[in-house]
Amino acid sequence: MGRNGRLKASGKVVGKENDGWPGWKGPGFVKKQEPKPAPKSKSKIAKSSQETPDEKEDSAPESLIPIELQQVLLNVFRDSFPEVLASETLQPLLQDVKAALYERDFARAFGKSEYLEAYSIRWSPSRALCYLSILIDLREHFTEINQPCTKNQPPNGTGAFITTGPDAALQHQSLDPASQPADVLEPGLRATCFGGGAAEIIALGGFCRYMRNASHAMKTGVQNPTDVETSMMTSLSLSENLPKINLLLLDEAQWQDVVHKLHSGLTTPPPMSKYASSAAKAANSSLIADGDIAATFRAEDVLAATQSQLNDVLGTGPMLLTLLFTLNELYTTSIAKTTAFLLKLTMAAKSGTLLLVVDSPGSYSETTIGTEAKKYPMLWLMDHTLLEAQNGGKGDVKKTPASWEKVISEESKWFRMPDELRYPIPLENMRYQMHLYRRV
After folding, report:
1. CA torsion angle for 396, 397, 403, 408 (degrees, to 10)?
2. Is the pLDDT of residue 161 over 90?
3. Distance in Å from the first CA to the final CA of the chain
4. Helical packing angle, 256-267 and 198-220, nearest 10°
5. Is residue 417 within 8 Å of 428, Cβ to Cβ?
6. pLDDT tens digits along 376-426
7. Residues with Cβ < 8 Å from 298, sequence gap 6 or more?
8. b/e string for 293-331 if b means 16 or more Cβ within 10 A?
9. How does strand 161-164 pair with strand 293-299?
10. Any residues with CB less than 8 A from the CB of 28 and at least 6 apart, and which?
11. Residue 180 has what pLDDT?
12. Residue 331: which of 305, 361, 363 has the closest Cα?
């Protein structure tokens, strides 16, 4: 942001030093001595993502996401909320949301539509790119859970995006292959994001595009899939044989309008200047095809979900489940209710289902036992529920084997925003923990 709350024409992300204010020349002008450059070992990350001395050596590997794709995804956020970005009230809104998040008052932080939009343009972009990098790293595991889906068609036939309110039954689309005609089946990845919203829809849209370009690279003999991104104009027909994503987003906050705008930004050509050339207008296309993601949003409190409701959500086959910066919030609400939710999720999940958990590193949740408050690491609570053998029942010493196996576990990783990216307001790097479990 510039002074007086006005937006600059193009912002910078992290890693760039400020250009400084222009100087002036005239009588009495004395050029000031240039300050010595800071040592390279010092932090170069903006604001809240400062690295400590112990973390400087924790260098993130080079991202597999092409710069062009990252920039296009940031543009989707920018173009979806132009009025919010240009508003003089943006900074006060961001301060209100930040204060509520600091106080862990999530009901207030996500309780207004203007707060959700402000959050989406400020904190969701970096998370979306981080989630995309994780999905790309884990892509080989997703081939095990691709299941037949109805061809590019959500269940109600109204288009590629569905939204339902809190009064609707908590149930997912029927994707049982036995209930679908054989001529409309094609490979599909079912994904349910608990606590999902703006970042998840963009990350999965970017994942669709990445996989399409990787497929094109293999078909055309390009050794490096990122070379295809130089034009970002790959034919949409190349995705015909790629898995579609059938996505369900569940969250207590009313994200439906935000998700709808972002879904439209992914599946419609970006806005162009009226001065653009005819060739540029002819080549302008959407990032993904309209049927690449069939998205459903439901406003639901997952901690209140019954076993029957979760059985309906997870269906009859393996799928991808995510808790992205959500699990510790649930634990903060209630460790007992969150543990019960994970146990019901375990009962509903079919063999081969993947559970991806991403959260802040070193997250702790506090509960009161008797008169004393005690803190537990989120990872310990999660592993205790998912990995340890369970008692067969009250008074029964026999134990059943653990229901999940841990496939990958990273307790602290960095996702760093490339310096080349441009966005109207600053974005920070992210540090996170990531764990992938498979239902046995």
Report:
1. 150
2. no
3. 50
4. 20
5. yes
6. 899 999 999 999 866 544 544 445 677 999 999 999 999 999 999 999 999
7. 163, 164, 166, 168, 170, 248, 249, 250
8. bbbbbbbbebeebeeebbbbbbbebbbbbbbbbbbbbbb
9. parallel
10. none
11. 39
12. 363
Residue 108 one-letter amino acid = R
What totals of helices (H) and strands (E) does the chain contain, helices first?
Answer: 14, 13
Q: Which structural domain, as residue segments, surrounds residue 329?
A: 57-86+123-270+286-392+399-439
Phi and psi, residue 246, nearest 5°: -105, 105
* Cβ pair 269, 285 in contact under 8 A: yes
What's the confidence (pLDDT) of residue 374? 83
For the segment 116-127, what is each residue's pLDDT rounded down to a tens digit?
A: 999 999 999 999
pLDDT of 222 strictly over 90: no
- Please, which residues have CB within 8 angstroms of residue 381's CB and are 6 or more apart in sequence? 331, 335, 338, 339, 365
Chain segment 53-104, per-residue pLDDT in tens: 444 445 555 678 999 999 999 999 999 999 999 999 999 999 999 999 999 8
- Is 278 domain-assigned? no
> Would you say residue 424 lies in a domain?
yes
Residue type, 243: P
**So what's the pLDDT on residue 178?**
37
Determine, yes or no, domain membership for 275.
Answer: no
> Which among 333, 420, 417, 355 is positioned nearest to 123, based on CA atoms?
417
Q: For the domain that residue 245 is a member of, what is the CATH number? A: 3.40.50.150
The residue among 363, 319, 362, 320 whose CA lies nearest residue 338 is 363
Find how far residue 86's CA is from the centre of its chain.
24
Distances (CA, A) of 59 to 9, 14, 44, 255, 360: 31, 15, 12, 34, 17
CA angle 81–85–86, rounded 5-degree value: 115
- What is the Cα 44 distance to its own chain's centre? 24
The dihedrals phi and psi of 150, each to the nearest 5 degrees, come to -65, 140
**Token pair of 412 as six digits:** 């602290």
Residue 32, phi then psi, degrees to nearest 5? -75, 150
Total of domains in the chain = 1
**Partners of 432 in the β-ladder:** 413
Residue 52 in any domain: the answer is no
Which H helix or E strand runs over 201?
Answer: helix 198-220
pLDDT of residue 291: 84
